Structure formats: C-alpha cells, structure tokens
Amino acid sequence: MEERINFDFNEVLEKFKNGKNLTGKDGLLAPLIKQLTEAALEAEVESHIANDVLSGKRNRKNGVNKKTIKGLSDGSFELETPRDRNGTFEPQIVKKHQTTISNEIEDKILSMYGLGMSYSDISSHIEEIYQVSISTATISAITDKIIDKVKAWQTRPLDSIYPFVWLDAIHYKIKDGGKYVSKAVYTVLGVNMEGKKDILGLYLSESEGANFWLSVLTDLNNRGLQDILIASVDGLKGFPEAIKTIFPKTEVQLCIIHQIRNSIRYVASKNHKEFMKDLKPVYQAVSKEAAEDALLALDEKWGKLYPIVLQSWNNKWENLSVYFKYPPEIRKVIYTTNIIESVHRQFRKLTKTKGAFPNENSLLKLLYMGMKNATKKWNMPMWNWNLTLSQLAIFFEGRLDSELKI
C-alpha cells in the first residue's frame, strides 16, 4: 500500500481560513476521509484474518484493490481496499460494489423525499445537518435509484389467488411531447389468503379506460395471478367486461360510494337531503329483494325529475347489487373501493406541492415511496379474517381448496 498522506490539522485550518473548500473536488477534508476509511478497512481485514486463525483456518493479507469513490459533491478519491488470501473478506465500511461513502446521507435524502419534500428543501436540510452542499441535480440522480426498485417491484411474481382485489385510478399532469397532459395512475390492491393487504401494481396511461384496464389485468395474470374471487371497482363503463375477459369466474362489485357521488352531482342542491334519505334504503337494504323494492320506490318518486340518475342505477344494478348475497363480514369489505382511497390519500399527501411532473419516472418514484409509506402498518390480517375466509370457502366452493390446505 502506498505511503499514507499526513493530515496536518493546523495546515488545514490555515487553508480553510484563506478560503479553500472543506468538501468537494480537492477539498481539504478529502485526505482525512481517505485515511480514516482506509484505516477502518485495515482494521476490518485484520479482525477477519484473526477470526480465521482462531478457527484453525490459514489466511493472510493479499494486497489491495483500488477504486474511485465519489462523494455527494464533486469530490472523489482513490480508495485502497485490502484483500485476504482466501478471498473471504467482505468489507462493511465500504462494500465491494459501493462507489460512494455517503450512504447515510443518501438514506436521509430518500427518507426526506419519501415525505414529499422538494429537492430545494432537501438540499437546504442536508447542508444544515452535514455542512455539505448538494445540488438539486445530484438529489434527482440519487432519487432516480428508486426507479430500479420500482421496476423490480412491478414485475415481481404474484400469488395465484387473491380473494379480494380493488382497482381504482388517480390522475396527474405529466409533461409529454412538450406539453402537459393528464394521465391516470392505476392502482391495484389485493388481499391475499392470509388476509393481508398488498398493492399488486401501479400502471400509467393517458386515460382511464376499459381497454387499458384489460392490459393491466393481463399483466397481473402473466405475473402469476390465476383467480380473483371478488373485484371491487368504480363505475367505469366496460370495466366488469374487461375483468371477465381475463378472470371469467370473478364476481365484480361496482363501488356504491362512487355511484352515490356520481348520482348526487345530477341532483339539485335543494333536493340533496331528501334524495339521499330516499336513496339510503336502497344501498342499506338487508337483501337484494328489499333493495330492489326501495329502488323502485326511488324511481317512482324521482325518476321523472332525474331520469339520468335512476337510469344509471338500473343499468348498473347487476354489478351494484352483488354484495347483497353475502353476509355482513364480506359486504363491508367489497361494497366500496374506499380501502384503496387510503393509498391515494398517501399519494396526494406527497404530491400536493407538485403542480405537474416532468416525466413519468419522476411521478412513479414518488408514488413508490408513497406506497411504501402507506403499507408500513400492513402487517396484520384484516379484522375477523378467519371467519371471512371460511364464508368465502362456502360461497366459492372448491376454488380455495388448494390454498386452504385442510
């Protein structure tokens, strides 16, 4: 190993007083960082060899490897990493393929980014904490590392069956071809056989349409998903048909909450309270028959005044009324897509300060961090899951046998 550079504190202090930078290219601290890092690596390899000797293995030092280590600013230096004769030494201070000694700062950057902080705010905080100036371009390059994780996550294998799946979209402005266009982010959330929630994928498209949902469902199928018992979706035209194309045995429940929201938009504000009072017996009925009686009464009273609203309920009734056949434990899980709205709220929390995004990757990496935040507490099964699963096994006889293992 080449001769160590002497680090003279007084000399460095004098140069610092004269305006020379501490960090960055040719910064005053670069020789010290190099010495401290190499000293730590020497201690690591000596400890490794000593442990080998104690366990009866023959081993010794065997020269060094050299590589260039970059900092978060413009500075870099050549680091000498010691080797051992047996080739079993795995350095921990600076790992084999690591090219920066700033992992701690990078982790802090990613953590702040995951909280929705802007690049300029992150830069200010890092400078305040570490006394290191980092450009927004550098922060962008660091957060771009998330993209590889997104791609790996997006293509991971899925379970063969998910009893419940919810599908919904959220919209953002993204720059495309020199102008900003609205694009839909499709979120797919499932509950596995253990009753635990899992986001199966995020997909981007220029519009929320049944054709693109078909490609989303095909991707899920290609990744190993073979069966969905019940899918809860919003009222998008053609959605149930798209699901049936890939998963023909799946029950499709349209979101009641979406239907109510869409209906009230066409009702005069002076009639909102009375209309909602008359609508409640429809979606809160104890049975499908009772709900249909209430819907008929609603039509008789309001049908001539609001024909579009009643026509929508009647046209979609087959998929709106699916939940009535199930007991309360299953009903309250499937009648709405609100469960996926909690994920979208996390997305909005992170993106609320962003008017638009320069490209799809800039949006996806932020949503991925939002997804990680939203799922941190998803380590317990859904409430009363064992009872729900046993009921599903009865309603969907034979389709859970291979997974229940009883």
Count of distinct structural domains: 2
Order of helices and strands: HHEEHHHHEEEHEHEHHHHHHHHHH
Report low-confidence residues grouped into runs of 5 or more: 1-5
Q: Given the C-alpha coordinates, what overall shape results?
A: elongated
Helix content: 40-55%
State mean pLDDT (0 to 100 scale): 84
Q: State the separation between the terminal residues, measured CA to CA.
A: 64 Å
Strand adjacency order, main sheet: 5-4-3-6-7
Number of helices: 18
The total of beta strands comes to 7
Major β-sheet profile: 5 strands, mixed
Radius of gyration from the alpha-carbon trace, in angstroms: 29 Å
Determine the structural class based on helices, strands and strand pairing. alpha/beta
Strand content: 15-25%
GO biological process, one term: DNA transposition
GO molecular function: DNA binding; transposase activity
Protein name: Mutator family transposase
Keywords: DNA recombination, DNA-binding, Transposable element, Transposition
